[in-house]
Amino acid sequence: MEREEFLLNPSSYKATLWLDLEDIVRFENYFKALSLVSKKGKIVFSDFDDTIFSRTPQLSEDRFEKNRWQAGNDLVEYTIWFENFFQKYYNSEMVVKEISDKTDVILTAWRVVVQKWKLKHTWLENKNSIIVDSHKYKPRAMLSYFLENNIYPEIIEFNDDKAFKLLEGFKDLSFLLKNVIVLNNVSLSKDRLNQVWDIQTITIKNWKIIN
Q: Cβ(80)–Cβ(35) under 8 Å?
């Protein structure tokens, strides 16, 4: 059956965007009205680590190779110390300008204070930024950003090294907004430190994948 009703199954929105039925109806009506008076052509969101910023020098070190995920976080916090970590590994030279120059909003996940220090050390602190607790909250964070700023984007572009893991959430967001969302799954070069190696793209329009 084609999804031509005015909204998706509420359980879908609840699972991906954490919206209740009342929220869904209110937001759909809001964006429908906003689209008549305040359309914005395109807005580009980009992740930070491994998208705008190359961590290849850091991750190639043996101590980081052996300590990934939480073990790596503990290594930074309790052994290296944050101040030393930022000074050594985070600078503007490792910024991927191909991505950063076209980014309107940096959308990144983890601890707020840590991510803010990363932005400061890479001279990106003046860009608009959103920091969420976990990767899975990024589609919902975009929705909140649009509501807070009265923005109705016709096209959303999202650059992230794990963009496709959020496919279902962005399908639902596209259906709610009745717009196009372009997911760019970014892979950075391991040889050229601040260059893109490959970008895989999925385009969504009103919940459906169109490419």
A: no
